[in-house]
Amino acid sequence: MLTGGCLCGGIQFQVVGQPNKIQLCHCQQCRKAQGGPFAANLAVNTDDFTIVKGEEFLSEFESQTIAGKIRIFCRCCGSPIISKLDSSPGVVRVRVGTLDEPFASDIALHQFVAYKAQWWDITDELPKYDEARPKK
Ligand SMILES: [Zn+2]
Ligand SMILES: [Zn+2]
Q1: Which ligand has the minimum distance to the alpha carbon of residue 113?
Q2: pTM of the model
Q3: What is the mean pLDDT of residues 9-38?
């Protein structure tokens, strides 16, 4: 099991099950939402993700360009926690930087690389997709 939470500590959550690999998203919306060069996301089955504390601090922002894409963050400290997509109802995408433990997982891929920050060089050999990763 993994635990995580927001910067102010108001929100705590748990993830059970074997973690997937991490996906790095370089799209402009993720860059703005994280304030960094990319978002590091972990796809988790909705049933495996539980808010343990601070449900009342969760606030939502729906994407203005992708209908049904919801970013959920702490309204006290602004930490991004998860995102959800109406078209993928069984999955939440946990922002990996909010996990508490040293978290050993591999990175799977880079996506939306066409929109990446000019000042960030990708130096690894992982798969890179200009747009969304291809659906399996
Ligand atoms: Zn917080
Ligand atoms: Zn993105």
Answers
A1: 2
A2: 0.93
A3: 96
